[in-house]
Amino acid sequence: MTLYPTHKMWLYLLDMPIEPPSKAKIDSDFVTTIAKPISDTLHYEASSALRYDYEKGVDPITLKASTTYPKGQNPKSLEIAHKLQIEYPKISDRFHNIVKLFKEQNLTYSLRPKPLDINNSVDSFLFEKRSGYCVHFASSFVLMARMSGIPARVVTGYKATASNSVENYLIVKERDAHAWAELLIDGRWVRYETTSNAHMIDDATEQLISSVDSQGGEAGLFGRANIYLMYIKYQVETWILQYSHFRQMQLLDRAKKDPSFVWKFVISILMFLLIIYLLFIYFRRHICADPLLCTMSPLVDRLQIDGYSRGEAETMKEFFNRVISHEPRYEKLEDIYDIYEKIRYGADDSDESLDMLDEKIREFLKGIV
Question: Is the same domain home to 278 and 300?
Fold first, then answer.
């Protein structure tokens, strides 16, 4: 794992963690921490089980915490939960009926929901606002389960997708934060994705997600290029910071067994250098907010070299007339101004007009060399 500075003491591991990294510890809630806040990039190794099953049974402290809910709140949800507990003695049947109840409410997934009644959050979410994000879905589902007699708890973490991966490298970002639920059914903790109960996603959230993607998210060419750039950066950092004799032997052994690895490695380095070069050129380029002034700038710069600077309050026409009065041979500036005037004041800012202006300026500059 590579963890960039968070200034917190938490370490992030794949689910389900089995063995913590060196000098770290895992508590009963599978939260992994170290002694000091992380202020520098940290590389560490840990063991996780991608397929797992909780052992039967649960300790008394966790069981008590997983059955507690605020008394005297959420009267409507509490009444429904008690009915479910009576009608469905089997916990698995009760769970499925809670799922059915949530789906029947036509809930909306929204990243900008209206505030809930904090004293009756489940009633407010299920029967009034009917809108929220993962935390609202998970917490409401867990409280409903507890009120119906099913031990349950909210689980928080990060839910990255395959679109964030290259080879065996997975990028997990802050916006991948997520919450879901676990319920104790037949003596085993069962995980449940509560946002699957959402009937729809609201328009604002759809637009927000699309906006994130268009600004460098995983969707699109730029997003994928960004992921590959981070992957190469990770590989370089790993080699530099953790390059040992063992890694040298691994690298040589792989090169011997897989000749294609050598040219893939070389191409990756060349691509990395090319991307760095392109980014350097991109950020060094002159950015002009006004295309018309950008087109005019070579001419204005040349006139300044000749000793004619445009005054702060001087219009372009006044500037050109002043230049012509001193240099009659520059009379072709009038033709340039005619095109400039049509574009600036005639709303003719098409690419064709700008190209025509650019061509006239080039001809003028060649004529005065």
Answer: no
